[in-house]
Design a protein that fits this description.
This protein has 408 residues and is an alpha+beta fold. The strands form three sheets. A six-stranded antiparallel beta barrel has the order 2-3-4-7-6-5. The longest helix is centred in the last third of the chain and has 13 residues. The chain is globular, with a radius of gyration of 20 Å. It starts with 24 loop residues before the first helix and ends with a helix.
C-alpha cells in the first residue's frame, strides 16, 4: 500500500493525565527570563502548584537585565544564560536536551530572528503512513476531494489579523510553523497567548522543547515576493514585532509518546505559547498590538454538524515557499487514527508543510468566529489536512497558561 509522508504532522502522544506536580523554582525562573525590561524582581516558588519567581517589566524598555541571584540559581541547573545567548543554545547533546514539560527555557536573544533567518526557516519534516489510516477502528469518512488553497488578500493584517508565523530552532536547523492569536480569559482584551501545534514546540518522546521560539504576527504583511524579501527590513517582515515565548505548554500525550513518524496521538497535537515582545511595546499586549484575538471553542460539534471550516497558514513545502498566507474552506469530515483517541476533523486542502499549527476557524456557539482546531497532519502530496477536535485536554493546557499569567 502506498505510503503517505507529510511534511508536517504531530508531535503528540496517547492518553495520559495532565501533570499536577509543582514547577521547579529554577525552571520556572528560566521561563520568566524572556523579558524586555530592566526592572525585575524575584520571589520563591510556590510549593503547591507551579509557583515561580516573578518579574515585572517597565513599559517601553528594550533590554533585559537578569539579577545575579537568578543567574546563580539557574547555573546550579546547568543553565548559563550568558553562554546560552552567545550560542550555547546550539548544543543539542541528547543528554542535555531539555526533556520534561517543566524544563522550558527561552530567553530572548535580540535580533536573532532577522529577515534572512525568518525567510530561510523550513517546515518540520515528519511522517504518517497510510497504514495508520487504513487500520482505523473509529469513524473515518471518505478522503475529501482536494480544495485549492487561496491566497489571503493583502494586507494580511486587514484580512486575518490573528494569523502569524512561529519560528524555532531544532537539531535539524531553523524551522517554521503557523499560529493564531487567541483570547486570554484571565486578561480579557489584553491577551499574550498564541495557539499552534504541539509538534511546533516540542519534539515528543525523542527529545525536548525546541529553542528560540518566537511568534511574528502578520508576517510579510504586504505579501511581497521572495525576491523582494531578500532586501526587506525587519519592520517590513515583522510589522507588529517579534514576540518571544516566555512560557509554552502542550499535551502530556505528545510529550510522553510523540514521535517523528506515524499518526498516533494526532488528536492531541496542540500547544499554547505565552509571549512577550522582544522590544518595548509601550505596555501593549499582543492582542492590543494586532487589534484582535480569537476565542477558542472547546465544545465545537462533531464534523457532520459543522457546515464549513477555514484553515489558514503559511505553507512552506513545494509548491509554496512559506512567504505568503493562504487559506482553505471546506465542510469537514472525520478521521480516526485510533479508536482510543478522539476523532479528528479533516478537510480538503492543498496547503503543505509550514501551515502546521495554523488555526481552523468556524462559527462558534455565539455566532461569531472561533478557533476550533489547528493543522496537524496531511499527505506530502497535499490534498487534505487533519486537525484535532479540541476537548478537555486542550482546555486544560489553555486554562493553565492563562491562569499562570493572570493579572500580569
Amino acid at each position: 500500500m502506498r505510503s503517505i509522508r507529510p511534511s508536517f504532522t504531530t508531535r503528540r502522544g496517547r492518553a495520559a493525565r495532565r501533570r499536577t506536580s509543582p514547577v521547579p523554582a529554577a525552571v520556572a525562573l528560566a521561563a520568566a527570563l524572556a523579558l524586555t525590561a530592566t526592572a525585575c524582581e524575584s520571589g520563591d516558588a510556590d510549593a503547591s502548584g507551579g509557583g515561580a519567581a516573578s518579574a515585572t517589566a517597565a513599559a517601553g524598555d528594550d533590554k533585559i537585565t537578569i539579577p545575579d541571584d537568578i543567574k546563580d540559581r539557574l547555573k546550579e541547573h546547568g543553565i548559563d544564560i550568558d553562554k546560552w545567548k552567545d550560542g550555547a543554545w546550539k548544543n543539542w547533546n541528547k543528554d542535555d536536551w531539555l526533556r520534561e514539560a517543566e524544563d522550558f527555557v527561552n530567553p530572548i536573544i535580540e535580533d536573532l530572528w532577522d529577515p534572512d533567518r525568518m525567510r530561510e526557516a523550513e517546515e518540520p519534516d515528519q511522517g504518517v503512513d497510510e497504514d495508520d489510516i487504513a487500520d482505523d477502528q473509529g469513524v473515518t469518512d471518505p478522503t475529501p476531494a482536494p480544495v485549492d488553497a487561496k491566497g489571503v488578500p493583502v494586507k494580511y493584517h486587514d484580512s486575518a489579523p490573528t494569523a502569524g508565523k512561529v519560528f524555532f530552532d531544532s537539531p535539524e536547523g531553523t524551522m517554521v510553523c503557523s499560529a493564531t492569536v487567541v483570547a486570554d480569559p484571565a486578561n480579557p482584551g489584553k491577551s499574550n497567548m498564541v495557539w499552534t501545534a504541539g509538534h511546533c514546540v516540542h519534539a515528543g518522546k525523542s527529545g525536548g522543547w525546541y529553542r528560540n521560539i518566537a511568534f511574528v504576527p502578520s508576517y510579510n504583511n504586504d505579501g511581497m515576493e521572495t525576491a523582494q524579501l531578500e532586501n526587506a527590513t525587519r519592520e517590513q517582515v515583522a510589522p507588529y514585532g517579534v514576540w518571544w515565548g516566555d512560557w509554552v505548554q502542550t499535551s502530556d500525550q505528545w510529550i510522553e509518546q510523540g514521535g517523528a513518524t506515524g499518526g498516533d496521538g494526532a488528536s492531541y497535537d496542540f500547544a499554547v505559547i505565552h509571549v512577550t515582545p522582544e522590544e518595548g511595546s509601550g505596555g501593549k499586549s499582543l492582542e492590543e498590538t494586532v487589534g484582535a484575538a480569537l476565542p477558542v471553542d472547546f465544545a465545537a460539534p462533531s464534523a457532520p454538524k459543522i457546515d464549513s471550516l477555514t484553515a489558514i497558514g503559511y505553507p512552506a513545502a513545494p509548491p509554496y515557499d512559506g512567504q505568503k498566507l493562504f487559506q482553505c474552506q471546506d465542510k469537514p469530515g472525520r478521521l480516526s487514527l485510533s479508536a482510543s483517541d478522539p476523532t479528528m476533523y479533516r478537510i480538503g486542502c492543498t496547503m503543505t508543510g509550514g501551515s502546521s499549527g495554523g488555526g481552523w476557524i468556524a462559527t462558534g456557539s455565539d455566532g461569531k468566529p472561533a478557533l476550533v482546531s489547528n493543522t496537524s497532519i496531511g499527505p506530502v502530496e497535499s490534498g487534505w489536512l487533519a486537525g484535532p477536535r479540541l476537548g478537555d485536554e486542550a482546555k486544560g493546557v489553555y486554562d493553565e497558561v492563562s491562569q499562570k499569567f493572570a493579572g500580569q
